[in-house]
Specification:
Blueprint: E1 2-9, H1 30-45, E2 51-54, H2 66-81, E3 86-88, E4 109-111, E5 116-122, E6 125-131, H3 143-149, E7 159-164, E8 167-168, E9 172-173, E10 178-179, E11 186-187, E12 196-201, E13 208-212, E14 218-225, E15 241-250, E16 256-266, E17 271-277, H4 286-295, E18 302-308, H5 313-319, H6 321-327, E19 333-338
The chain binds manganese (II) ion (MN).
Length: 350
């Protein structure tokens, strides 16, 4: 009887490493975020989906120049101009609301600026999209109430989707697979009411679909995280990045279901971390140690050198950001992080 296709992306963090007036010349990662954003939206720009949901953290922070907001909304408006509605959940990086929001005004762009429900209709098939902006702090005790406040029960539709930008019990992050659990700022997914067929959320940067709770019981409503469109930190260095496409179907008996979904991967650069125990290397050998390591990895790598032990000022001459850049090809991004105080003990504050 009908199919509705939804493109779901989140955590685009536009504006990250994207200075409008750069003070130094080096490779910036900002354009890569925009490039993946455009790649993710391409199916919508081509008219191959019926709606777009952005799960929040469109921008990398809340205080941004209007130009950045304009650049972020330009492709969304292009999608909306094609008659495809766009739904946006303000995330924590937007401080729960879109800055310079007048730049986002378009009859087909809908923002969850408060708990509310939008309707998406295609022929005789309709979806209700209930959702709310990012809620800071203790959401767990108020979650049921918030869902209620969206007013979804007053909206008639074949299928109901819940949109938010929060952590839920069982969501996993980081190289050590940390799992969120039972905290006041974490949603209990068992509390998502039955009429919903899925919850779509941003916030967690790893792509994952939660269908079981922490006790391995089947969840009544699955939770989808598309993850971020690029690696925003070294904690994400092993994660594939991309976006989701979900297909909803209305059959001949007017029964509607989430019939299929697919993760679409986006290109990412290798992220490589080296551990440097500086007390074990002569300062004179430091440059060649770094050069040898950089020569053995892909030229477009994003490199972090994790420096253990106290660093002498001579070693700092090699490890400062500008000095490191002279050792790496211009195609790399390179940075050092210091696990101890940057300066020898004599410089430390008491
Ligand atoms: Mn985020």
């Amino acid at each position: 009887m009908g199919i509705i296709r939804i493109l779901f992306l989140a955590d685009t963090h536009l504006g990250y490493d994207f200075p409008f007036r750069p003070r130094i010349e080096r490779r910036r990662r900002g354009p890569e975020f925009f490039a993946n954003y455009m790649r993710a939206l391409q199916p919508a720009i081509d008219g191959r989906v019926d709606g777009v949901i952005h799960g929040g953290d469109l921008l990398y922070r809340s205080k941004v120049p209007p130009k950045l907001v304009e650049m972020a909304f330009e492709p969304l408006k292009r999608v909306a101009d094609g008659g495809i509605p766009v739904f946006l959940v303000p995330g924590n990086h937007e401080r729960s609301s879109i800055p310079h929001t007048h730049l986002a005004v378009h009859p087909y762009i809908h923002i969850f600026d408060r708990p509310r429900t939008f309707r998406l209709q295609k022929d005789n098939f309709s979806l209700a999209l209930a959702g709310f902006q990012f809620v800071r702090g203790a959401i767990r005790p108020y979650f049921t109430d918030l869902v209620h406040q969206t007013g979804y029960r007053e909206v008639d539709a074949d299928l109901y989707l819940l949109c938010f930008h929060q952590a839920v019990d069982g969501a996993a992050v980081g190289p050590a697979d940390y799992r969120f659990r039972y905290a006041p700022d974490v949603i209990d997914p068992r509390q998502i009411p039955g009429p919903f067929c899925a919850a779509l959320s941003g916030h967690i940067h790893r792509f994952q679909v939660l269908s079981r709770d922490l006790k391995d019981r089947l969840l009544p409503v699955p939770v989808f995280y598309p993850g971020s469109i690029d690696r925003t930190s070294f904690a994400e260095r092993n994660e594939p990045k991309g976006f989701l496409q979900l297909e909803f179907e209305l059959d001949d008996f007017r029964k509607a279901t989430l019939s299929r979904w697919q993760f679409h991967a986006l290109p990412v650069r290798p992220m490589i971390q080296f551990d440097l125990h500086i007390s074990r290397i002569k300062t004179a050998d430091l440059r060649s140690w770094i050069r040898a390591r950089l020569a053995a990895i892909p030229e477009d790598s994003i490199v972090k050198i994790k420096i253990n032990d106290t660093v002498s000022s001579q070693a700092m001459d090699v490890l400062s950001a500008p000095a490191l850049r002279t050792l790496a090809p211009a195609t790399m991004n390179i940075d050092a992080v210091f696990t101890e105080m940057r300066w020898p003990p004599a410089y430390r504050k008491r």
